[in-house]
Amino acid sequence: MSSFRIGLKKIYFPNIIFHLVRTPTLPPNQVAFRVPPNINKLDIRDYLFHVYKLKVVDVRTMNYGAKRPVKKSDGILRGKFTSKYKKAIVTLAEDFAYPPPPDKSELEHYK
């Protein structure tokens, strides 16, 4: 009997959400992501390598603060609340091809 039993190996999935940001001004080997503010550069590099097998050369990050609505003289709030986030510009070893944008007619049945 072997020592391997089904169901005993633990698999940990990351609890991180990376949003791909389409930026046409970046070179073909750079990609922009919107990531949570508690993620550091090493986490970004590690995540992209282990989940997507991307070879990362460099990571640059920028922190953006939360925005609050402005109260006008008539007492009405203008604008909306946005949470803080971090933008990461990742330089890859190879050129990156953006996936095609989703077709809105295919997404209508999810409403």
Strand order of the largest sheet: 1-2-6-3
Rg (C-alpha, Å): 20 Å
| Largest beta-sheet details | 4 strands, antiparallel
Shape: extended
* String of helices and strands: EEHEEEEH
What is the end-to-end distance?
A: 51 Å
Parts with pLDDT < 50 across at least 5 consecutive residues: none
Question: What's the total count of β strands?
Answer: 6
Strand content: 25-35%
Give the helix/strand class. Answer: alpha+beta
Binned, the helix content reads 10-25%
Protein name: 7077_t:CDS:1
Task: Give a quick set of tags describing it.
111 residues; single chain; alpha+beta; two-stranded antiparallel ribbon; extended; 4-stranded antiparallel β-sheet
How does this model look, in words?
The protein has 111 residues and is α+β, with helices and mostly antiparallel strands. It is built from two helices and six strands. The chain has helices spanning 41-52, 104-107; strands at residues 19-21, 30-35, 56-64, 70-71, 77-78, 85-92. The strands form two sheets. Strands 1-2-6-3 form a four-stranded antiparallel beta sheet, covered by helices on one side. Strands 4-5 form a two-stranded antiparallel sheet. A hairpin with a 5-residue loop joins strand 4 (70-71) and strand 5 (77-78). The radius of gyration is 20 Å and the shape is extended. 6% of the residues are buried.
Blueprint of the fold:
Blueprint: E1 19-21, E2 30-35, H1 41-52, E3 56-64, E4 70-71, E5 77-78, E6 85-92, H2 104-107
Describe the structure in brief.
The chain has helices at residues 41-52, 104-107; strands at residues 19-21, 30-35, 56-64, 70-71, 77-78, 85-92.
